[in-house]
Each structure stands twice: as structure tokens, then as C-alpha cells.
Amino acid sequence: MATKVKAKIEKTVARRGGSSYITKWLVRLGLLSLFVSACAWLDTIKDRWYVFEPTSLNKLANEAIAANPNNTRGMISHIVANLTSHYPSTLIALNPRQDEWVFSNAGGAMGAMYIIHASITEYLIIFGTPLGTEGHTGLHTADDYFNILVGEQWAFAPGSLEMERYGPGDVHHLPRATAKQYKMHEGCFALEYARGWIPLMLPFGLADILTSTLDFPTFYHTSRITAREIFNNLLVGKI
Predict the structure, then answer these.
(1) Digits of tens for pLDDT over the chain (239 positions)?
(2) Which helix (H) or strand (E) holds 47?
(3) What is the rounded CA–CA span in Å between residue 188 and residue 216?
(4) Residue 13: per-residue pLDDT
(5) Within 10 A of 85 (CB to CB), how many other CB atoms are there?
(6) Which residue ranges does UniProt annotate as crossing the membrane (predicted)?
(7) Residues 6+ apart with CB under 8 A from 198
(8) What is the CATH number of the domain that holds 145?
(9) Element (H, E) at 122
(10) Rounded to an integer, what distance in angstroms lies between the CA atom of residue 41 and that of residue 130?
(11) Alpha-carbon gap, residue 62 to 73, rounded angstroms
């Protein structure tokens, strides 16, 4: 009799354990579905948080080129001065520290960048190198607009038999979820603008440090500056 009761109890416990396991996974799947749905909804409204316009930035880049021929540093100063005077600090936070440059190793390419703006949905940087570099653009959750200030950039997409060529004043638009090979020739610098989900681009921008260069001071400063600028923008309500 005792044996039958024990077996019945064990059977009941096993049945409840199986039900509990199924319930846990149903809850997890439900939460995952809610998360995916929320992300999809946020993606449809992210444009309401954009402040910059690609056409305006390209116009500004061309104005900087015209006002400072053969003077890259002058172009950068022109761009930063224009942005800080045009956009109030109550709308968006900008980084005016033009000496705050860090190395950028991503997709096999190497250069240096100055982060003018970073938020959840936008970033604006100066990127380039006097030496030249080439690599993979990465596959991103944001549209990228590369406004050439000096030098020349070449690009190539799979299936194309001819290269794309971009010179001063040109803009190279890389739509989200697309990738190319690109090359920046000696002395090429650009005003780069991205709009989309910026935090999801960070692994691409930092992975080479962890797997190749082991330049941890650059990892620290890149993370510190990016986090600082995103936080400063959140303080003024800029997502």
C-alpha cells in the first residue's frame, strides 16, 4: 500500500514538474514575442527622434570645403561652429572638443574619428586617415551618409563590375542592411552621419580591438566618449 502511494506521489510530482517546465517556456516565448513586437513598433517611429537631415549636412560639408580649400582642420572647425550655432543645446548635445580624436578599427579598416554627436538614433563624426585604408563597411541597422571633405573614397558592392568613386563634396549613402568593400585613399577625411539604431553598431566598431589590436586604451576612450555623449543627449530629451 505504501509503495502504491509513493509511486502515485512521484507520478504527480513528475507531471507537475513537466507542466511547470512547459509553463516557463511559454512565458519566455511570450516575453520574447512582446520584445520583438516592441522593437518592430519602435523601428516604425524612430524618425521622430532625428534632428539632422542628410541633405543639410551635405550642403554644410560643401560650404566647409568652399570656405577652407586645402585646409581639413579649417573645414572641421567650420562644420562644428555651424552646428553649435544652428542647433540649441536644449534640443541636442554636441561635442565641441575638436582635439578629442580616437583610433577607429572596424571591418579591417583603420583611421581616426572625432565624435561630434552620439545619441540612440543618430551619430555624426569626422573620420579619416592621412595614410589611406580599406575594409568592410559592416552590416548595420542604420543608414550611413559619408560626405567626403578631402581625398577620395572608392566602393564596391557584390555583383558590380565597376567601382563607385566619391570625391570632395560627394555623399556615399549606404542603406541599412547593406554592405560594401570600401577604400579611402591617402589624406581622405569625411563627415559621416548615421541614422537608425546606433547602439547596435557599436559591436562592429569595437570588435577589432578585442580580436586583433588589443588597444584597450582606445576601447576605453571610445566607450567613454560615446556613453558620455549619449547620456548628455538623453538629459535634454534627445533619443
Answers:
(1) 556 545 555 555 456 556 787 888 888 888 777 777 876 776 777 788 999 999 999 999 999 999 999 999 999 999 999 999 999 999 999 999 999 999 999 999 999 999 999 999 999 999 999 999 999 999 999 999 999 999 999 999 999 999 999 999 999 999 999 999 999 999 999 999 999 999 999 999 999 999 999 999 999 999 999 999 999 999 999 99
(2) none
(3) 26
(4) 46
(5) 8
(6) 25-42
(7) 118, 119, 120, 121, 122, 123, 142, 230
(8) 2.60.120.10
(9) strand 122-129
(10) 42
(11) 14
Decide: 94 and 85 in contact? Cβ < 8 Å. Answer: no
Task: Report how many domains make up the chain.
Answer: 2
Question: What range does the domain containing 172 cover?
Answer: 50-235
Find where cell 573614397 sits. 153
Closest listed residue to residue 97, CA positions, set 74, 117, 111? 117
Q: Which of 128, 136, 171, 176 is nearest to 157 (CA)?
A: 136
Tell whether 43 and 57 lie within a shared domain: no
Which pLDDT belongs to residue 144?
Answer: 98
Residue in the structure block whose three cell numbers are 553598431: 201
Q: Which helix (H) or strand (E) holds 189?
A: strand 188-196
C-alpha cell at 25: 517556456
Question: Which strands form 122-129's sheet, in the order they lie side by side?
Answer: 101-106, 109-118, 122-129, 188-196, 142-150, 171-174
Instruction: Mark whether 21 and 110 lie in a shared domain.
Output: no
- Classify residue 131 by its DSSP letter: S
One-letter identity of residue 199: P
- Domain co-membership, 89 together with 207: yes
Selection from 49, 48, 53 nearest residue 193 by Cα:
53
Instruction: Give the SS3 label for residue 68.
Output: coil
Q: Is there a single domain that holds both residue 6 and residue 119?
A: no
- The amino acid at residue 108 is G
